[in-house]
Amino acid sequence: MRRLIASVFAGALLFAGFGANAEEEVRFWFHFDNPDNPISQLVSKFEQENPGIKIKAENIPWNTYYEKLNTSIIGGNPPDVAMVKLFALPQLLEMGALHPLDDHIASWDGKADIQDELWELNRASDGKNYYMPLQYVVLYLYYRKDLFDQHGVKVPTNREEFLEAAKKLTLDTNNDGRIDVYGFGMRGAKGGHDHWATFVLPNGADINKEGGLLTPEAIAANQWFIDLHRVHKVFPPSAPNDGFKEITGGFKAGRTAMTIHHIGSSAGMVEALGDKVSAAPVPQGTQGAWTAFGDESTAVFSASKVKDAAFKWVAFLSSGDNNVEFNKASGQLPVTKSGSAEWTLHEKRFVDATVASLPFARTLPAKPQTSEFVGSSWPTNMQRALLGEISAEEMLRNIDNLYFK
After folding, report:
1. Which CATH class is domain 140-292+362-404?
2. Neighbour order of strands in the sheet with 277-280
3. Where exactly does CATH 3.40.190.10 map onto the chain?
4. CB 344 within 8 A of CB 120
5. How many CB atoms lie within 10 A of CB 186?
6. pLDDT value at 96 more than 70
7. Three-state secondary structure along 136-199?
8. 33 pLDDT band (50/70/90 cuts)?
9. How is domain 22-137+295-346 classified at the CATH fold level?
10. Prediction pTM value
């Protein structure tokens, strides 16, 4: 009897132990500039719908996001799930950091509701999907409609018209000998590669091909872009060091007449300028047009011990109303067909500019070097070229060496 009681008691303890350990914790890293974001509410909703899974969410500052993520991977302690961008995909794959999601996606009921193009845009070079689409944007031209109308300038459709408009709208408004409004707010610091790519890549330059940035056409296109600052002086003097806050802040404050960004900035633009601001696709080049597809996805990391639970979380964030709520705070567009059909967060002119730009929206090369190009190579070389420290050809040679040497 004693042995039987002891056995039953031990079994009860063992069962209780299993119950205590049954709860799975998913560590989730994200970045949200907006402190009033919906992550805590989404976590609560998910945990109610998925008992036994807890989400530990951590908001990582953007300026150190990838440095911290890469360090955690190298140290063998990455999060289970993190928000990620396409430029980081090749490097993360090279590090063996990502868990392929194809099998999970194939059996997921929400797959058909994701915009079809996003699966292809997110596909890795090996044909697999490691990213779950979360939000997206396409860059376009913001312009001051009131200034264009006042000075009789038409919205530019090619780079010659862009230069003409930028020169006409670089203004000394009070005749004191100093420029008060510059034609274009150029982002010369980190993240500004998309401005550069818009004016250089569709004009005889090919960043995907060895030597493709070193053709006479490519060098001439880069020189044309640099001359906007050094010769025509249609960028603010601060352009070599300007980042996101400077270009959007300068535009809203009336210091620039044009800039390039995406729909995520539209609410702030309208709040500051009302009907004075409008949008259009970026100007065409000599060989078509190029604008950046801006993305944010989620990924499950190969080191995770709770991969099934982690996928449930990323699928939850990309489903129906959850994805809509997430993107209301992010200011980007939902990845679901159902969410897009009833989207009212952004004014129509900005949605129209986004949709009109989709046919020529592109991504940078799916190579490990792209992370370095975005993070350090492009801003360093662009700043030096804008300041006259290196030539247009030297800048392009440095980028070509990064990718192909």
Report:
1. alpha beta
2. 258-261, 140-144, 277-280
3. 22-137+295-346, 140-292+362-404
4. no
5. 30
6. yes
7. EEECEEEEEHHHHHHCCCCCCCEHHHHHHHHHHCCECCCCCCCCCEECCECCCCCCCHHHHHHH
8. confident
9. D-Maltodextrin-Binding Protein; domain 2 (3.40.190)
10. 0.75
